[in-house]
Amino acid sequence: MIFEPITVCDLNIRNRFVRSATHEWLADENGCPTSKIGDIYEELAKNEVGLIITGYSYVNPRGRSSDNQQGIYDDSFIEPYQDITSRVHKYKSKIVIQIVHGGRQAKPSTKYPIPIAPSAVTDSSSGITPIEMTESDILETIEDFANAARRAKEAGFDGVQLHCAHGFLLSNFISPYTNQRNDRWGGSVEKRTQIVVEIIKRIRKMVDEDFPIMVKLNATDGFDDKSKKIGLDAPECIDIAKILEQNGICAIEVSGGISEAGEVMSRPGIDNPEKEAYFKQYSKAIKEAVNIPIILVGGVRSRTMMESLINDGYADMVSMSRPFIREPDLVMKLKSGESEQVSCVSCNRCFDLNGVKCNYP
Ligand SMILES: Cc1cc2nc3c(=O)[nH]c(=O)nc-3n(C[C@H](O)[C@H](O)[C@H](O)COP(=O)(O)O)c2cc1C
Ligand code: SF4
Q1: Which region, left, alpha or beta, applies to residue 94 given φ > 0 means left and ψ of -120 to 50 means alpha?
Q2: pTM over cut 0.85
């Protein structure tokens, strides 16, 4: 099954492999992508990764979270992105850009010393208390996401993925922990998801009706019981997935974790089958509740697990980040039978500010 094609968002994808969004620290200081980013994607495409999702790309300068992060907030970036998408499209792979606003986890800068978020809830991992967004901040942000999608389409991307995971702005809105508003943008699950719905509507107006819009969704914020913090978790993530489907999202990648909850997103030490695919119960529950393709990320490490995830109804596609950093030719190795297991040991030394790479011997 993992080598069988699939149609996702009307895109014919050659197999079930997704390269999950992975920040590369390889844009210039203004967020303009460099050819080194294109080198990585071309290598993945050459090695038959069906769907490549770019590193998180900020929709306005206030939404930047990291040094050398790529942006998509200016029309002058369309051309460099066109170079990248055309390099990928020489092969049979598809490429989608992940668009984000850093929200509560934006990096303070001279111009924007304090991040903005739905509510002023202090982040205990950074000590930062964000400023509560005004109505006009929210409306401007919706517009910025829509303009980012317009640029993505012009740059030749096959779609966009709205980053609704990992503690960034849209994830801040959908979580009851970081969204404590009681206006039309907070409270019930529907209201907390409303900003995403408005972004979808605005993209539909600005870009043509069938431009694929996917979502990377936090199924859980990842707090353990000891923290006594109540974040997003099941069953609410299932309600959110249903709302997204009803509003035209055509694929959901299931993930989890926010900075404040620790190493939830990229869990270290995945060294036996029990630790693999650590969000799989969430993806199964979401898959049972909606009729759009579900992509599962997080600790997928063996061919046996990949096959089982697809065959046993946990997901339609399997997504990986760290394994592809270490082995860009992983799909080819699995296909030829050269390998049954990824060689990444989940040590997290690839979070490298000088440019993403595997730093494990
Ligand atoms: C170096 C690095 C950068 C990442 N950057 C992003 C990102 O830009 N956007 C995102 O949604 N997730 C990002 N992630 C998380 C991964 O996409 C993925 O969800 C997580 O690592 C779990 O998958 P894995 O076990 O296959 O690595 C990053 C992970 C790593 C290791
Ligand atoms: S440094 Fe290498 S082995 Fe360690 S998690 Fe990253 S890709 Fe895997």
Answers
A1: beta
A2: yes
